């Protein structure tokens, strides 16, 4: 079976059209993430929802009192359908914008640096790493986000199924062999998750990072925190979970996590520990400027 290329705009145009632009949540819903987001965002923040698709996360924020929310997606028809659906939320913006585009003619190049206080990404980075360009699109996207929140007060929040051995390479621009040892944090969080029940909103450890990097280790960010959020419907850390959303499993199987580490091996034990944790959790990366 041919791999699905989630980085392809054509794929999303066909998918949205086939589903009549119906609401769909990748990974986590806005309500599931709220126990974390309420500690990261402020109603005065200018918030960019990157790769909004047909998610409700923008409208969810609006209903919680956030009025400065801009939702963008590379699929024009999708954005138009969502703008019509949520037209009653008159202060919320919708725009067709490819955040991984490059060149003087790319629309994103006209957006001023520091235009936003926070950027929310729910599986957009996951989609971009499937592009057959050795991670170029994903790294370009991260660099664009860093520019858009340059000098701001808020974070870049990435909700992902990719564990730290993969995602931190992109966010920190470093090969796997140079990543800091995070094994102890993984084991501690895994112990707490063995007793976790229900959805992410009931997971007490959601407001405690599984790992935190600061200073030189966190470049180009001031600080990067890694959170583990229980997958919806997970009953325990050790449970064998069959994801209700088969497309998410397909994305994980098809993903080609491109890196520039030259094939360097992961640190002993770290990759397997994160992979075990990832069977029950999604990861949230909070990158502070």
From TrEMBL:
Q: Which UniProt keywords apply?
A: Methyltransferase, Transferase
Q: Which InterPro entries match?
A: Lys/N-term_MeTrsfase_sf, SAM-dependent_MTases_sf
User: From the UniProt record, which GO molecular function terms apply?
Assistant: methyltransferase activity
Protein's GO biological process? methylation
Q: Where is this region: Disordered?
A: 235-271
Signal peptide annotation = none
In which residue ranges is the amino acid composition biased (Acidic residues)? 239-260
Can you tell which superkingdom this protein's organism belongs to? Eukaryota
Identify its protein family. Answer: Belongs to the methyltransferase superfamily.
Q: What is this protein called?
A: Methyltransferase type 11 domain-containing protein
Naturally occurring in which organism (per UniProt): Cafeteria roenbergensis
């Amino acid at each position: 079976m041919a791999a699905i290329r989630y980085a392809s705009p054509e794929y999303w145009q066909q998918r949205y059209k086939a589903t009549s632009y119906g609401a769909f949540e990748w990974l986590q819903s806005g309500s599931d993430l709220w126990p974390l987001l309420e500690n990261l965002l402020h109603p005065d923040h200018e918030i960019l929802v990157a790769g909004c698709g047909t998610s409700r996360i923008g409208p969810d924020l609006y209903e919680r009192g956030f009025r400065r929310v801009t939702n963008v997606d590379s699929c024009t028809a999708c954005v138009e359908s969502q703008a019509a659906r949520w037209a009653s939320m008159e202060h919320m913006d919708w725009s067709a914008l490819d955040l991984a585009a490059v060149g003087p003619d790319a629309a994103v190049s006209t957006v001023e640096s520091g235009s936003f206080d926070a950027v929310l990404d729910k599986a957009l980075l996951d989609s971009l790493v499937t592009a057959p360009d050795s991670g170029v699109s994903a790294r370009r996207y991260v660099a664009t986000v860093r520019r858009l929140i340059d000098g701001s007060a808020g974070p870049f929040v990435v909700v992902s199924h990719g564990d730290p051995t993969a995602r931190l390479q992109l966010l920190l621009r470093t090969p796997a062999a140079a990543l800091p040892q995070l094994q102890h944090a993984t084991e501690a969080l895994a112990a707490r998750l063995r007793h976790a029940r229900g959805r992410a909103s009931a997971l007490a450890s959601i407001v405690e990072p599984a790992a935190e990097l600061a200073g030189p280790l966190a470049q180009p960010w001031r600080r990067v925190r890694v959170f583990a959020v229980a997958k919806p419907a997970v009953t325990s850390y050790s449970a064998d979970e069959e994801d209700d959303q088969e497309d998410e499993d397909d994305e994980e199987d098809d993903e080609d996590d491109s890196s520039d580490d030259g094939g360097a091996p992961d640190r002993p034990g770290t990759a397997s520990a994160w992979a075990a944790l990832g069977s029950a959790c999604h990861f949230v990366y909070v990158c502070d400027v």
